[in-house]
Design a protein that fits this description.
Blueprint lengths: L2 H4 L4 E2 L4 E2 L4 E2 L4 E2 L4 E2 L4 E2 L3 E10 L2 E8 L2 E6 L2 E4 H9 L5 H13 L4
Parallel strand pairs: 1-4, 2-5, 3-6
Antiparallel strand pairs: 7-8, 8-9, 9-10
Helix pairs in contact: 2-3
């Protein structure tokens, strides 16, 4: 049985691999040579994904969905702008804010 038969609706390209704890939503497509890191969260329509790191008890990933940058943290999604606002003054979330701010700077949003 092929992977396509075992996992209908999902595609994983040649040489791609997925680490323990990653979640990949139905309809996601993973291209040839991709590496999905531990704790990554990928939803349908995500075009670009990078794991920002682990802080404040959750993995943080950056994705581009429909042309908008999103931060995934645990079960929550924020646009990059909303993530900056949300974590700017959140108590005990300084590390999360630092990761999000660095991602914004790198991608020209800060």
């Amino acid at each position: 049985m092929t992977n396509q038969e075992r996992f209908p609706g999902a595609y994983i390209g040649q040489g791609a691999y997925i680490e323990q704890g990653a979640y990949i939503g139905q309809g996601a497509r993973i291209g040839q040579g991709a590496h999905i890191g531990q704790g990554a969260l990928i939803r349908k329509g995500d075009e670009y994904v990078t794991v920002l790191g682990y802080a404040d008890d959750y993995w943080k990933t950056l994705t581009r969905r429909n042309g908008v940058l999103w931060i995934n943290a645990g079960c929550r999604d924020f646009s990059l702008d909303d993530a900056l606002k949300h974590w700017r003054k959140a108590p005990n979330r300084e590390l999360t804010y630092a990761l999000v701010k660095a991602a914004a700077k790198k991608h020209g949003a800060a």
